[in-house]
Amino acid sequence: MRIKFFCTALLLLFLALTHDGLAWNQGTHRQINYEAVNVFYRQMEGKKKYLLGPLPEELRQKPCRGIAVTSSGLDIGHYTIAEGSFTMPQWIIVGGDWADEPHLYASVRHFYDPLGLVKPYLTDQFWAHGVLYEAPGIDAKTWGLDHPDNPFSFRQGLTYYKLAMEVDDSVPLPPTLAPNHFKLNLNLAPVDHADQRSVYLALAYRALGEAMHMLGDMTQPAHVRNDSHPLDEPIETRIFSEHVRAAAADPFLDPRLTPLLASAGGTLQEPERLVREVASFTNSHFYSEDTIHDKASKIIPNNYDPLLAHAYPSPQFSDLRESATLVQGYLIKRRVKRYDGQGGAFDWTRVPMAQERLSFHWFDPDQSIWNDPLESAASYSGATGRYHIPNAYAPNQAKVLLPIAIHANADLMDMFFPTMELVSTFAEKGVEKGDAPSGAEYSRYVIEVETDMTHHQEQDVAWKAYGLAIEYTGPATLVIARDGKPVSRRALHFRKGRLEAIEKADGTLEKKKLRLYSTLGEHALTEEEEFYGIEDGQTAHVEIEAGTRRFKSEPFTYKKKDTTVVIQPPRIVTYEMAEGATQVTHEFEATARPDDAYRFVWDFGDGATFSEDLRPGVSSKISHTYTNLKAKDRFHPEVRLESTSGAALAKDAVTIDITEKEDVAEPAPATAEGGGRWMLTRTWQDILESSRFNTVNVQGTETSASIHISVKDRSATWVFDYGASWSPLPVSAAPREEVEILLKVDRAEGSTGPVWSCGLEIYDGRHKDHNYPPPKATFLASGFKWHSLWVAKDPKVTQTTYNLSFGKNPKKGDKQVVTVRFVGHGCGAAIANGAVHQYYEYTFQP
């Protein structure tokens, strides 16, 4: 008997030292991590974080050089490492394996009791691991998340990722990246700064994989119930990769836990709470082989010890569903009690928890003595409580526990990646003078670019919890493209989230502001400016590839400004010639946009011409005398804008009318029956383009207007296009005269879904209180008596008429301003709207 007891003790000690704490087997852990990666890939689609910085497939499959484990042994002395090269998902998957290496070192650090009945770490069978090996006093939650001695904790993984995102190319390369720890004792000297980033990423992803292993252990009952399980733990040793694949394909996610799992439709938790909640769920709803306890039946756990291992309050048999079955014993059939889980996922699928133990169970279909020597050894070693967990129960329990492990780890992956946003603003500075190498003066259009890479730490539960924030330092690229195809790429460099340096034409970097340049007229850019040249219709954006992600700023589209020339009002001029007068002098002024050096060529309409070359920003001012005039003469003076070499660019014209002045003894109010008319003396317009988001473009002429609105967010683009026209207003009219004006909405098109409308309105300006100044362009113009035509309120009505009435009993010099306005909005007036007011000023002339 002594020999048998001694041999049994040696067997128990050996098995305890080799088997203690391995949780799911390593192949199962790899498969859990693999399935979690795939769940994460599916869950990240459409999330804002990954729209700002997606993880494209080609970057996920890019290998990173790091530290690989090349052994599978018991102690540190048998632990070997070497350089390895794996992709991001591969590092995460093998990290799920290597967290168990070396076995003895790992095993005593992979237990966490969320109730802390004795301690949160492993105390069961202290005589084995505490005396013969070690008792570090470290629980799995602390070890996996942020213990300072663990070089592959979750927090350390975030730190490695932060280091990869902050490698400064101006700092000399370090001789090695690994601190003094047996798991890192490998000289990984980076060959360049890109390799330095790669090594940090490999360390980060391996740490993530090992942290996911630790979280997976929280779905192992023995690991959350202070059960060192030195021999047999059914759910641990009888679950393999095929069970994980089946659980991932058809997950039974318990509704009692899904509110805490973002990948299952719940809310993302902080890392510490996620581990605690998963461990608490497993602890309260599952037994391990040595912790079956029922107070009412006086069932004491196999491993009960008043100092080292206490009985857990749940589950109790009263929490479970009791049943009985007949099992063929050695001689007769025996009645055996069983207990199944109930509530939550247990109501969807049968999950057996414990069964009454038989002295001999050769014929029990839920036993497997012939195939499981560990179970047989356990029965001989004294682990023979009244109830046990047959090995056949393992797959049913795994149906509930494995989906939790997979989805909780998908959440851990989600919180690992930071929310970062690359924003670029393109400020159009307009026309600025430049200095050509020859010393000649010239102008070009300038766009100044400000760009930042921001870590929104407040949106990241893990990064915020650990007080870590990324200040991106590293390379970036300016991309100039046309129709989505890159035309040029320029290297940039960021420091602490801000653009610091830009590429020169010789390939080196210099600390300088980023500016884009476009030619004006026939001026050529300097070589330096041409390197950052942009043409009409091209787009520009900044992009960064870092941390296995690709960040892109919103593209800016350059639209070259049309060259225009405008003769300043009044647009229609009437001169009354006194008796005997035959000439009049008129002062003209014309301005051109954008500012540049232009040639102004005047044709005064009477055969006389004049031209002058002016420097940028200077308007053309000229006086001209018309001679040999007579009543009813009409002139259409015109200015033509040309480049300094004579290329035609734009033109504009006004009207000058000559009338004969009538002698009137005494000014008196004119009536409809008396002389005098309302004369159109000038026209002008005011434009409003209001938008919180993207593009509102408004254009107008004296008889038409158009509004184009494009509203864009990260999920969709809505486009609205409106056009309207109206009858030409009369050049003159008699007092009290009414003129019919046709108002017509020619085009009203909007994207399906958002609210939109457009309106065409006219106001005749007869009320003096509302005459001067006329209403400025605005979307809502209350207080005026508009005659309106709105499309969207009544889409079938697209035109109307209005009798424009001119004031009665006017005096000489009285004015009446008629306003025609066209307005439209897209996605609601508060989001984007535009308006154009066209004004017609009439002056009464007796």
From TrEMBL:
Residues in PKD domain copies: 569-627
Signal recorded as keyword: yes
UniProt-listed Gene3D superfamilies: P1 Nuclease
Signal peptide interval: 1-25
UniProtKB keywords: Signal
Recorded GO MF terms: hydrolase activity, acting on ester bonds
The organism's place on the tree of life at top rank: Bacteria
Protein name: PKD domain-containing protein
Native source organism of the sequence: Desulfomicrobium apsheronum
